Amino acid sequence: MKHTLGLIAAATVLAVGGGTAAWASGDDPPPGDTITDVSGDWRHGWTIEHYDGTVTYPPTIAEARAGCAALHHRVGRVRCRTRTRIWYRDLAATKLALDFARSR
């Protein structure tokens, strides 16, 4: 899960920071794991599409919270819930950024 969070955070920075626009103007294609579309929401689940054609389906918020509840230590559960909340917040921000970039 840490690896996935890192990839999403990196792709978010690239998408919001104009990295995608720089790739669009050049001849070199972006890396395959670049996020090209995010759809869905935290209640019903997300769909994340990548430049190389792969699609990722993160769990719904209920499934993620259930996974956190399975942890044995309270501190671990709190960390897991916090990471999940931040991850879904960042997915929503990425979705908005991509929608905004497409509208221009």
Automatic annotation (TrEMBL):
Domain of life: Bacteria
Keyword Signal included in the entry's annotation: yes
Signal peptide limits: 1-24
Keywords: Signal
This protein's name: Uncharacterized protein
